[in-house]
């Protein structure tokens, strides 16, 4: 039984009982017992553990976890303390500075963002070491669709930051006009710098401020 120790437990209780999730769970049990899988088992659901449903202000959707040792720990785009900042995250930090003037974290550990109300949710929550997308189409996509659907039905507005085609495809789950969807190219260097200038950090806080909601402290901490 998954225990998140916050309001997600009740909201996702039925999801964890569904056939697709039970099949996914059996698949993961085999994978973790026979291969090197990231993140560690106790970190799989960190995005939901660190950012309770009622505290979600914004969602950043990632692809799947980092595939190298010492990086993935259950938060999209985030790495463990001491790990080298990956290129995509470096570009996120560059845009943050250009957009808001806020200095980013000295490292790539984004737990502070998660505690601020930013749900850092990968589309797929696990991966084999060295093999991107190796756990795609095993059930995680349905699970993360369910998470986004629950937020879509929430009365309090949420900002959804969808960077790149994979993340933007998740936008089909968001239908309520009370929310804000922000789309941009993926921050990977492979996107040719088209992510820069999106100004999503300031746009998020402008949206929250206009609705009397607490802002997100993105940097300078």
In words, what does this structure look like?
Helices cover 34% and strands 11% of the residues. The relative contact order is 0.17. Strands 3-2-5-6 form a 4-stranded parallel sheet. The chain is built from 8 helices and 6 strands; from the N terminus they run ααβαβααββαβαβα. The chain has helices spanning 8-12, 19-34, 46-50, 87-100, 111-116, 140-152, 165-169, 200-210; strands at residues 37-38, 58-62, 118-122, 127-128, 159-163, 180-184. With 221 residues, the chain is an alpha/beta fold. The mean pLDDT is 96. Helix 7 links the parallel strand 5 and strand 6.
Determine the structural class based on helices, strands and strand pairing. Answer: alpha/beta
Encode the helix/strand succession as letters.
HHEHEHHEEHEHEH
> Low-confidence segments, ≥5 residues, pLDDT <50?
none
What level of helicity do the residues show? 25-40%
Strand order of the largest sheet: 3-2-5-6
Q: Major beta sheet, specifics?
A: 4 strands, parallel
């Amino acid at each position: 039984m998954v225990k998140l120790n916050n309001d997600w437990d009740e909201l996702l209780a039925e999801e964890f009982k569904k056939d697709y999730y039970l099949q996914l769970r059996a698949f993961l049990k085999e994978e973790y017992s026979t291969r090197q899988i990231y993140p560690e088992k106790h970190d799989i659901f960190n995005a939901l553990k660190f950012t309770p449903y009622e505290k979600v202000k914004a969602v950043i959707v990632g692809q799947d976890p980092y595939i190298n040792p010492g990086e993935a720990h259950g938060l999209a785009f985030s790495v463990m303390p001491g790990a080298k900042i990956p290129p995509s995250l470096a570009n996120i930090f560059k845009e943050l500075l250009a957009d808001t003037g806020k200095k980013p974290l000295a490292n790539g550990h984004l737990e502070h963002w998660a505690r601020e109300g930013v749900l850092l949710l990968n589309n797929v929550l696990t991966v084999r070491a060295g093999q991107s997308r190796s756990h795609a189409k095993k059930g995680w996509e349905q699970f993360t669709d369910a998470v986004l659907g629950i937020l879509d039905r929430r009365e309090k507005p949420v900002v959804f930051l969808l960077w790149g085609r994979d993340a933007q495809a998740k936008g089909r789950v968001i239908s309520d006009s009370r929310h804000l969807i922000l789309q941009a190219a993926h921050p990977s260097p492979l996107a040719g710098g088209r992510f820069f200038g999106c100004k999503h950090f300031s746009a998020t806080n402008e949206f929250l401020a206009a609705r009397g909601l607490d802002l997100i402290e993105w940097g300078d901490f």
